[in-house]
Design brief:
By secondary structure, the protein is of the alpha+beta class. The chain folds into two domains: 99 residues, Nucleic acid-binding proteins (OB fold (Dihydrolipoamide Acetyltransferase, E2P)), CATH 2.40.50; 305 residues, BirA Bifunctional Protein, domain 2, CATH 3.30.930.10. The protein has eleven helices and 18 strands. The strands form four sheets. Strands 6-10-11-18-17-16-13-12 form an eight-stranded mixed beta sheet. The protein has a five-stranded mixed beta barrel with strand order 1-2-3-5-4. The longest helix is centred in the middle third of the chain and has 31 residues. The chain is elongated, with a radius of gyration of 27 Å. The two termini are 38 Å apart.
């Protein structure tokens, strides 16, 4: 029995017997010769079968030709035949002259989605949509990016955590919590691992990270929001300020994009028309108040009733940074305390400003980070000021009653990074199975 060969490895293989397995992408059933494009998880190859004719031109019985004529798009099969290198073949400069087909699973002839189907229709049939080579590449890029981050963390002595996703109380805002029945009581789906990764600091872990799910009961229908997403989190002890967190953050981004460019840069350019750029460090840093002034000078006034920046403001400041500094990333720093969680540290000389930041990538916020407040009396005061009951936060506040080092960290949306890296317009394109206010299937 011939061992299965991945299609991507055919170019380096010798001519001769070969076996490939995958699904049917197209069939060209011509009078004299039949062509099948077979795709697997690594690429596509052309299968060819000349029809059999008698000397007088009469078609001969040809069971293989009949099998090919009956193939439907999406059917999974194994093909055996003779591999031949031929530069005239556009698809990989190789083809396989068929000896036989073994159909593992035949597909229904009429597929429910097409190349021009809208995104909601494609999400309904996501397992078919994912067969596209662009989608395959998205998740290979995701794998490489995550692996590079994890490699950086491990090589720098970080500890990986797997924190609970069922919580007894809110980590940030009760307004964005999903409540779930929990035996005779109520639990909440975790908005972030914030409290738990902070708990690792008084535990003496020093540096920790997690890549895991997070949940936000946010009824937003925008292209960049989801109710369940993958959060990339890190927390480190003994920071002098949020500057230490930003340095860690940018080094991780550089490590991830360096790996992606090296492994997938050519494919990304071919399929998405995007040139992956590895950013220089340090990333630009702009205090929020200055960013809003720059945006106003560009002719746009931020439309917010609070002291935050809006999506158009993010796009404008990103455009400014790209034009003046040639950079795709910018840290917006020093957010107002009124719009930041109670556990963000404030400046001693100006408590209205926090030692925090948002990281903007190609015009969209992908992450929030900060130095955390580690002084228990300050934490309690700031919690009350934001309408939170310290009693409900007692398990969290206890972390700080028995000694804790100065620390800080960030949480980053993995999907947004991929979306912006590949210059895609919707988070759903880079999410394996998207969850939003109106979608719980498939």
């Amino acid at each position: 029995m011939t061992t299965r060969t991945l299609i991507k490895n055919l170019a380096a293989a010798f001519d001769g017997p070969v076996s490939v397995s995958g699904w049917v992408e197209t069939v060209r059933d011509q009078k004299k010769v039949q062509f099948v494009v077979l795709r697997d998880e690594s690429g596509a190859v052309q299968l060819v079968h000349p029809r059999a004719f008698a000397d007088d031109g009469t078609p001969l019985a040809d069971p293989l030709a009949e099998s090919i004529s009956a193939l439907t798009q999406g059917s999974f099969l194994t093909a055996t035949g003779e591999l031949k290198h031929d530069e005239r073949v556009k698809l990989g400069a190789v083809e396989i002259k068929l000896d036989g087909l073994t159909i593992a699973s035949a597909a229904i002839a009429e597929t429910p989605i097409a190349a021009d189907s809208n995104i909601d229709k494609r999400m309904d049939w996501r397992f078919l949509d994912l067969r596209r080579p662009e989608q395959n590449l998205v998740f290979r890029v995701q794998t490489t990016f995550e692996h590079a981050l994890r490699t950086y963390w491990v090589e720098n002595d970080f500890i990986e955590l797997h924190t609970p996703k069922l919580m007894a109380s809110a980590s940030e805002s009760k307004a964005e919590l999903f409540e779930v029945k929990y035996f005779e009581g109520t639990a909440f789906l975790a908005q972030s691992p914030q409290f738990f990764k902070q708990m690792a600091q008084p535990a003496g872990f020093g540096k920790v990270f997690e890549v895991g799910p997070a949940f936000r009961a946010d009824p937003s229908f925008t292209s960049r929001h989801a109710t369940e997403f993958t959060s990339v989190d890190a927390e480190i002890s003994w920071v002098a300020s949020h500057e230490d967190v930003m340095t860690l953050h940018e080094n991780l981004i550089v490590a991830g994009l360096t790996a992606v460019k090296a492994k997938h840069g050519g494919e990304i350019t071919a399929l998405f028309g995007v040139e992956v750029s590895v950013p220089t460090t340090p990333f630009p840093r702009i205090p929020l108040a200055e960013a809003k002034r720059i945006v106003a000078e560009r002719g746009y006034v931020v439309q917010r009733v609070d002291d935050d920046i809006d999506p158009e403001g993010e796009r404008q400041i990103a455009a400014y940074v790209a034009e003046t500094l040639g950079h795709e990333f910018v840290f917006l720093t020093d957010y107002a305390s009124g719009i930041r969680p109670f556990y963000h540290m404030r400046y001693d000389d100006d408590p209205s400003i926090t030692k925090s930041y948002d990281l903007i990538f190609n015009g969209v916020e992908i992450s929030t980070g900060a130095q955390r407040e580690h002084r228990i009396e300050v934490l309690e005061r700031q919690a009350r000021a934001q309408g939170l009951d310290p009693e409900e936060l007692s398990f969290y506040l206890d972390f700080f009653r028995y000694g804790v080092p100065p620390h800080g960290g960030f949480g980053m949306g993995l999907g947004r990074v991929l979306m912006l890296l590949l210059h895609l317009a919707n988070l759903r394109e880079v999410t394996y199975l998207f969850r939003g206010p109106a979608r719980l299937l498939p």
